[in-house]
Write a structure and sequence with these properties.
It is found in: Membrane. With 285 residues, this protein is α/β, with parallel strands linked by helices. The protein contains 10 helices and 6 strands. A hairpin with a 4-residue loop joins strand 5 and strand 6. The structure holds zinc ion (ZN).
Length: 285
């Protein structure tokens, strides 16, 4: 992947790194229900398990940057965001609409957001209240080590997935889904909406990949990286690894097979109208 061919976001990335308390845990127990309800996490961990207990381990790993060295991480994230701005602006424009790009906030350790305080333990997320994607790039190390192997295009998929949640917000899909969830008659039904929302964000990430594939010279190897990531973060795979068994009704992000399927649906077609994971034409463009 030649990500340096992609355009800068022109100031869309806020650098809040270095703000983490060195070696200190943070009081994540103070996070209200709001953030749990609102953050659309990429990493299918159960917030209850992250926030439960009095002594939550937090990741304090610094982002992989060195003072004095060119900041590759910032440049990379900036260009991936810039390319999502370009792709979605174009798609919205063709549909006679205007796309307002999100900001991307880099942090290390913990961060205050309009959705509440969060630690890097929750993984990358999007906060619709301030329309920002929050990313601690130590998550990339985590992907490398135990979530499918990482790689440039896999990291890009993470960012494009979170931007996909912003697109859902722009299209009013998030609101429609929240309404439907409030009327759900069971937790399983409410969770099924979360799964569809997450799978659509995967599909939107694929749509972005389709549109940058020639500019970024994507190869089969790049696509394999993203697919490996999607497979590694399916609810079934994570649950099997975490607790040794799978509880389908508690899924919030979809199975590995579903995540791969919807990413590839977006990637092959490049058309967000093919990302109707709800089967109800929510937010057609
Ligand atoms: Zn998500």
């Amino acid at each position: 992947m030649d990500w340096k061919n992609l355009p800068s976001s022109g100031g869309g990335v806020e650098d809040g790194r270095g703000g983490g308390l060195p070696g200190g845990g943070i009081a994540v127990g103070g996070i209200g229900g709001l953030i749990i309800a609102l953050i659309a996490m990429f990493f299918g961990i159960n917030p209850g398990s992250v926030l439960g207990g009095g002594n939550t381990p937090t990741t304090q790993t610094q982002a992989p940057t060195q003072s004095g060295a060119p900041d590759q991480t910032y440049d990379f994230v900036d260009r991936i965001l810039g390319s999502t701005n370009q792709v979605w602006s174009g798609i919205f424009q063709q549909a006679g609409r205007t796309y307002t790009p999100p900001k991307l906030h880099l942090y290390s350790g913990y961060v205050n957001t309009a959705c509440g305080q969060a630690s890097s333990a929750v993984g990358p997320f999007y906060c619709p209240l301030d329309q920002k994607v929050y990313l601690d790039t130590s998550f990339f190390n985590e992907m490398n080590q135990r979530l499918g192997g990482g790689g440039d295009f896999a990291y890009s998929y993470v960012i494009a997935h979170e931007v996909g949640h912003h697109v859902q917000n722009e299209l009013g899909i998030s609101d429609q889904v929240e309404r439907a969830q409030r009327q759900a008659r069971s937790e399983a039904e409410a969770n099924s909406y979360s799964v569809r929302l997450e799978l659509q964000a995967d599909c939107f990430a694929g749509v972005w990949g389709n549109h940058v594939s020639s500019l970024a010279n994507l190869t089969q190897q790049d696509v394999t990286e993203a697919v490996n990531t999607a497979a590694a973060i399916g609810d079934d795979t994570l649950q099997r690894a975490g607790q040794g068994y799978v509880v389908p009704d508690s899924f919030t992000h979809g199975t590995s097979a579903q995540r791969v399927h919807w990413f590839m649906t977006g990637f092959k077609s490049g058309n967000p109208n093919n990302c109707d994971t709800f089967g109800q034409n929510y937010g057609q463009l």
